[in-house]
Amino acid sequence: MTNLLKNKKISETPFRKEVLAIFGRYNNAIPLSIVEKELKEYNRITLYRTIKIFLEKGIIHEITISGEESNYAVCQEECNTDAHHHQHIHFKCKKCEIIYCVEINKFPSIALPNYKIEQLEIQATGLCQSCNV
Amino acid sequence: MTNLLKNKKISETPFRKEVLAIFGRYNNAIPLSIVEKELKEYNRITLYRTIKIFLEKGIIHEITISGEESNYAVCQEECNTDAHHHQHIHFKCKKCEIIYCVEINKFPSIALPNYKIEQLEIQATGLCQSCNV
DNA sequence: TTTTTAAGTGCAACAATGTTGCAATAAATA
DNA sequence: TATTTATTGCAACATTGTTGCACTTAAAAA
Ligand SMILES: [Zn+2]
Ligand SMILES: [Zn+2]
Ligand SMILES: [Zn+2]
Ligand SMILES: [Zn+2]
Predict the structure, then answer these.
(1) Most CB atoms within 10 A, among A42, A113, B50, B119?
(2) Distances (CA, A) of B36 to B1, B47, B60
(3) Would you say residue A77 has pLDDT above 60?
(4) Which chain B residue has its CA at the smallest distance from A108's CA?
(5) pTM score, two decimals?
(6) B70-93: per-residue pLDDT in tens?
(7) Which domains does chain A possess?
(8) B105 touches chain A (CB under 8 A)
(9) How far is CA A78 from CA A4, A7, A60, A75, A85, in A?
């Protein structure tokens, strides 16, 4: 996790390491508000810039759901500035409201007449492993 | 289109009719900035409240793509406050950048062990009918 | 390791976006 | 038409995100 910053060719500062460590402690996507809560003290602007560069460099990716706060989760290693290479869906649990990145082996494909589909992004809602009892 | 407001049980005001007419003139999703451009003069707050109630009542739905302005498109008749009943995907063209609501007859389904999936939302990117030549 | 260079941080100030209370106004209902 | 109810516009505010610039820190070179 630590060498991720070096791998992505951005300076390894204490603040960035700390933010990255927070993401690492969760195995689901988290909103900025949680990052802020976990940081004892921080500069609002620096945090914005950190999130921005993490997104640009493919360190994290953003999950947006209409009417809700954006969530962020660490990317796969292969992601970069130009493209994200995820083979997962974003699953939001209706009960615990946690958003998970769920790996999926056979990604569905759809065809639309006259359209050329290059990429699919899937968001699912329902009950997660813990809540589906 | 006009009686849509009555059907959804909200007051039929000149402003609301005008905003609804703008959505009706497009056959794709549009951002707030286009609505604003089409309105000769308008009150910013009233527009926000109009969009908000349209969303709540299931008159329009919101399409959010990470890092981009939200887009809005008219809903199917069956949509309501509690649930949207769309059988379509959101397709964003890489070239013209327009976002379309594309009807799809066989909606894909996915299964995840231990998860209970209740709803899927799909966003696709590629080339639209016009740009795919 | 020290020096040089490049990048990151924090402050101030600003811009954009969204919200709320309240009085005036308009729409729906009786 | 009169009454009730909902909508609108204003002012003021809250939140979110951005930019320029000086200062500090990290990385690279010597
Ligand atoms: Zn859950
Ligand atoms: Zn993800
Ligand atoms: Zn196109
Ligand atoms: Zn749609």
Answers:
(1) B50
(2) 20, 9, 16
(3) no
(4) B108
(5) 0.90
(6) 999 998 755 556 665 668 999 999
(7) 4-126 (1.10.10.10)
(8) no
(9) 11, 11, 11, 8, 6
B106 pLDDT band, cuts 50/70/90, is confident
d(CA A125, CA A48): 28
A36 contact to strand D (CB, 7 A limit): no
For the stretch A116-127, pLDDT in tens is 999 999 999 999
Asked if A118 has any chain B CB less than 8 Å from its own CB, the reply is yes
Burial of A104 (0-12, 13-18, 19+ CB in 10 A): middle
Q: Is the pLDDT of residue B1 over 80?
A: no
Distance A53 CA to D12 C1' (A): 35
Instruction: Tell me the two tokens of residue B55.
Output: 């969303």
CB contacts, 8 Å: A118 with chain B? 94, 124-127
Using an 8 Å Cβ cutoff, are B78 and B113 in contact?
A: no
Nearest-CA neighbor of A29 among A77, A2, A64, A78?
A64
A112–B123 CB contact, under 8 Å = no
The partner residues of B102 in beta bridges, in order of sequence, read B89
Strand D nucleotides, any atom under 7 Å from protein beta carbons: they are 6-12, 16-20, 25-27
Q: Of A101, A115, A128, which to mutate for an interface test with B (greatest number of B Cβ within 10 Å)? A: A115
**How many other CB atoms are found less than 10 A from the CB of residue B35?**
19
Number of cross-chain residue pairs from A and B with Cβ atoms under 8 Å apart:
108
